[in-house]
Design a protein that fits this description.
Layout (H helix, E strand, L loop, with lengths): L9 H7 L2 E4 L4 H9 L3 E4 L13 H19 L7 E10 L2 E3 L5 H11 L3 E12 L8 E13 L4 H8 L21 E5 L2 H5 L3 H8 L1
Helix pairs in contact: 4-5
Length: about 200
């Protein structure tokens, strides 16, 4: 799905979230919000990402909610909107988070090459009290499907020898070097980036 589609949501996101706190270390999520007209203040929570779940959409929504709870415990009653998010890649019954090392990264890319996998991104949006209305927290998740080209061992080794996989769910970033691996995306492109703009925009509107 083309990124250009989302520019039509610019007025929705920037109107409701002209300035937003992004409780995430992700530069991709920050760049995404900036491209939609938001002023972004980065304040990562550094919360625990441990989970015991087996269904991607449920796990990422739960982790996003936990990150929001962590943020609000550290910064009670913020006066600006806050967004937290989490992303996981799944293939078959395996949930793939951030690789621990290059061995993990190699395994993930080898697993995904030539196949279609799921990318689930969860989000939690805090909207502060305004004009007599109570503050509110909106939680949700979205799923997209990504297909990789068939890769050679040399392709994978060359990719893993760099650091583009570091800190990325499934060992890749759609906007990074691995974009050349992708043959098809079914669903919202921004869900694969890590922040489901379609879903959030629909709720805000």
């Amino acid at each position: 799905m083309s990124w250009k589609r989302h520019m039509g949501f610019n007025h929705i996101i920037s109107r409701f979230l002209p300035t937003v706190i992004l409780a995430s270390q992700s530069t991709a999520r920050k760049d995404l919000l900036i491209s939609l007209g938001c002023t972004v203040i980065s304040m990562p929570t550094h919360s625990d990402e441990y989970h015991e779940g087996s269904v991607g959409k449920d796990v990422v929504q739960d982790l996003a909610q936990k990150k929001m709870e962590s943020f609000l415990s550290q910064h009670p009653s913020p006066t600006l909107p806050v967004i937290t998010a989490d992303t996981l890649v799944s293939y078959g019954s395996q949930l793939l988070g951030k690789p621990k090392d290059s061995k993990d990264a190699h395994y993930y890319i080898q697993l995904l090459q030539g196949e279609t996998h799921s990318v689930c991104s969860g989000y939690s949006v805090y909207l502060p009290a305004f004009r007599g209305k109570h503050d509110v927290i909106i939680n949700g998740s979205d799923e997209a499907f990504v297909t990789f080209h068939t890769l050679t061992s040399k392709d994978i080794e060359l990719y893993v020898s760099g650091n583009d996989w570091y800190g990325a769910a499934g060992a890749y970033r759609i906007q990074g070097l691995a974009k050349s691996f992708i043959s098809n995306i079914s669903g919202d492109y921004t869900t694969v980036v890590g922040l489901p703009i379609d879903a959030i925009s629909a709720i805000l509107s």
